[in-house]
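User: Teach me something about this protein's shape.
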Amino acid sequence: MLSQTKKVFFVVGALLLSTVATASTVKSVTVPANTAPKQPILIQGPMPIEAEYFADLLKNVRIEHSGNFTFYIGTLNDYPIVVTKTSKGVENTAAATAIAIERYKPRAIINQGTSGGHDKSLNVGDIVLGKRSFNAGNFKTPVLSEGEGSNPMNWIPMDVMASEGSAGEGDGAVDAEKVRYYEANPELLASAHAVKETHKRGKVVEGTIGSANFWNNEIDRMNWLNKHFGSSVEEMETASAAMMAEAYGIPFLGIRILSNNLTNGGKYDPSTATDNQKFVKNVVLHYISTL
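Assistant: First, the predicted structure itself:
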């Protein structure tokens, strides 16, 4: 009986040793877990001088085109970035923004470039962080008969996003007689403030960016927009990009440098476009560090 028990233990032990030996000789490969890809940051500039400096900062660049728009896809400090040359104007910017959102799925958008000053306290080279932006071309005129002329100072704002049923006349019209402001994303704005000392050409302040397909040389008109709507600067793109970013729920910030300011005699200086992109680079690097 004892002998049979020993035989059983011997057989069981042999089987265990055989199993261990077999397991230790099985070949294997371990596949690491996947991580979610990083969503790029979208940087927009309307003209070549407002986009190409930043595009040149990128590594591993490939270029794509859609319609009038050019997209530079690359990395900055190993983080994915898409730079878009949107072309000028609210329509171009809205289309370029929507295409970029659908195609590249950005986690944040910064629209940047040059602008003309409305605030007499701002000088050429100063940067305005768009705490808010609005469309400075959406207006409704009062009713005037033939021969009564036109007075733009009497125009009232018109919110094209007020409601789908709100036309220029009728019961719903009053609901649309207001200005719509788009606020900046707090985290992007905080990153801009964190690096504002890196901009040496002028000061960096919060303000309101007005956008419209309008090249304004009338100082009284500038003063009127500044007084009634708080505009710090004017240009042709930011509010349009902000509207698209809001539609898709994407964090947004407009950053504009003054290239001229007729309200205080500041002469046009195109070199400000590069200075603004240098500052935006620092904003992006700080924002990336917080992710």
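Now, about its shape. Residues 249 and 262 are 36 Å apart (CA to CA). The first helix runs from residue 2 to 25. If you'd like, I can walk through any region in more detail.
User: That's plenty for now, thanks!
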